[in-house]
Design goal:
Elements: H1 2-16, H2 24-31, H3 33-38, E1 56-59, H4 77-84, E2 90-95, E3 98-102, E4 105-106, H5 111-128
Helix pairs in contact: 1-2, 1-4, 2-4
């Protein structure tokens, strides 16, 4: 979702030949409450309000490409989030009040097992299709 937030305004700026088109705050709103409205779910999700589902993320802004973080007379947090943040900066994810990722660690699935099973399934599929996989690229029992 982070990449989509970045490219929506950039494409509009190019399309309209105007760098002022679609401010970062509008893009964030589109990704949250306006997106929920489009789905008919704005009474349940899309904003932080009493009675709504607690769908939240925390983002680690302590990265070179997300600095400086200014909060006084000029606030650039939303711009940094929209134009520079990546999914890898998401530290925690809560959906409907349930913590699904805690400090970059998934809480509901064994990530290593998912990677291992996915890798093996892909290799088996290619082998069934008689696609040669060099030994150095085959799964060796450790996650990639």
């Amino acid at each position: 979702m982070m990449e989509e937030m970045k490219y929506v305004p950039l494409l509009q700026k190019v399309r309209q030949y105007d760098a002022r088109v679609m401010k970062a705050e509008k893009v964030l709103r589109m990704a949250t409450i306006d997106g929920a409205k489009a789905l008919g779910l704005d009474r349940e999700i899309g904003s932080i309000e009493i009675g709504k589902k607690a769908d939240l993320i925390t983002v680690d802004f302590r990265k070179l490409h997300l600095t400086p973080v200014l909060t006084q007379s000029y606030n650039n947090i939303v711009s940094n989030l929209v134009y520079s943040a990546q999914g890898s900066e998401v530290r925690n994810v809560m959906v409907d009040g349930k913590l699904l990722m805690d400090n970059r660690k998934l809480t509901t699935v064994d990530e290593e097992e998912v990677i291992r099973e996915g890798q093996l399934a892909a290799e088996q599929l290619l082998e069934r299709r008689e696609v040669y996989i060099p030994k150095e690229y085959r799964f060796q029992g450790e996650t990639v």
